[in-house]
Specification:
- By secondary structure, this protein is α/β, with parallel strands linked by helices.
- It contains eleven helices and 14 strands.
- The protein has one domain: UDP-N-acetylmuramoyl-L-alanine:D-glutamate ligase (3-Layer(aba) Sandwich).
- The protein is about 35% helix and about 20% strand.
- The chain has a ten-stranded mixed β-sheet with strand order 5-4-1-8-9-10-11-12-13-14, sandwiched between helices.
- β11 and β12 form a beta hairpin.
- It is globular.
Length: about 325
């Protein structure tokens, strides 16, 4: 079996986990859903019309075929079209009364971890139109740092915009100190960091509140921008020069669960980034220069993308038309901090 690919001029390349979320239903049964933070992000980008390349391999088993179907439906290209023999990663997902997810992972000897730094770099070098490279979450575990850190370094050196989603998962690692160090090492290569308030606490960033913590984290890296998600409290975009903007939903909504919300948020942010011609030029140069109008556009699109996700079961990324319709009907509240 050969997985299908989509011939196109790739703008974004993603690297990281693709797994099956076994979501616990109210009756105790486990329902399999295609997932993984980077996989969710990848599909969300494709469904919003961004030509995207997924760099990791998929398994040839039943779950691998399910993941491949999701990739194909989103119009995403696969860098490795031949499936590998290793099995698909699994995550058991529990939901609390607010729909917030917790995870237990099964990740030894699995398909999506069968990558090398050289292979990742080579796949990106074959894409002359590539502007943005993204990774995060389980790819930042210390045991895989020799695969992803050289690749990130090469992407920054090549002038591509490097985006890292911290998205920490403490349940996946036995050594928290090594995990934090590996995440911080990855952030040293980022132009844009995405982090949640929970991530800041897990990283051990000091500060009286999430804004102070986020500013402290930004100052510990060379990144130019940091996107901070605050759950129901919306999101903030911070600049290295101290500028900050906040955006939050203006309309009430029913949250089914939060699976994939942060992934859809980041996808929406990158979609909006690529929609701005001036920003496209700065992205190509590996730089970000935003004003308040840019920030409002990016945050509105990102918040709406996340909101549409949480109103569905599991990670159900919206289409571009759905996001545009929501931002038109319910423009998020925006303010300068």
């Amino acid at each position: 079996m050969v997985f299908p690919s989509t011939p196109t001029v790739v703008q974004v390349a993603t690297a990281g986990e693709a797994l099956i979320d076994l979501i616990e239903d109210t009756d105790g049964r486990l329902r399999p859903c295609a997932g993984g933070a980077v996989y969710n992000l990848t599909r969300a980008l494709g469904l919003q019309g961004v030509p995207t390349l997924y760099l990791n391999p998929l398994a040839g088993d039943r779950f691998g075929r399910l993941l491949a179907e999701g990739i194909a439906q989103a119009g995403v290209a696969l860098a490795q079209q031949q499936p590998v023999h290793e099995p698909t990663s699994l995550a058991v997902v529990g939901l609390d009364e607010q729909g917030k997810a917790s995870y237990s992972f099964y990740r030894e000897g699995v398909a999506d971890r069968q990558v090398t730094a050289q292979g990742l770099v080579a796949a990106c070098e074959n894409q002359p139109g590539l502007r943005i490279t993204v990774t995060g979450c389980l790819a930042l575990a210390a045991e895989d740092s020799t695969k992803y850190l050289p690749w990130l370094r090469a992407q920054r050196a090549a002038g591509r915009l490097v985006v890292v989603d911290a998205n920490l998962r403490p349940a996946v690692v036995p050594d928290m100190a090594a995990y934090r160090a590996s995440v911080m090492a990855a952030l040293q290569h980022a132009h844009l960091i995405k982090v949640s308030d929970d991530d800041l606490d897990t990283l051990g960033i000091e500060g009286a509140d999430a804004m102070i913590q986020a500013s402290a984290l930004l100052n510990q890296t060379p990144a130019q921008w940091l996107a901070l998600t605050l759950g129901a409290g919306g999101a903030v975009l911070l600049a290295r020069d101290g500028q900050a903007w906040h955006s939050a939903e203006s309309a009430p909504m029913t949250v089914v669960d939060t699976v994939g919300a942060g992934d859809c948020f980041l996808a929406g942010l990158l979609v909006a980034l690529l929609q701005r011609p001036a920003l496209q030029r700065s992205v190509h140069a590996g730089e970000l220069r935003l004003d308040a109008s840019d920030a409002q556009h990016l945050l509105a699109h990102a918040v709406a993308s996340a909101s549409l996700c949480v109103m569905q079961t599991g990670c159900t990324p919206p289409s571009l038309a759905e996001v545009v319709a929501r931002t038109t009907a319910h423009p998020p509240v925006f303010r300068v901090l």
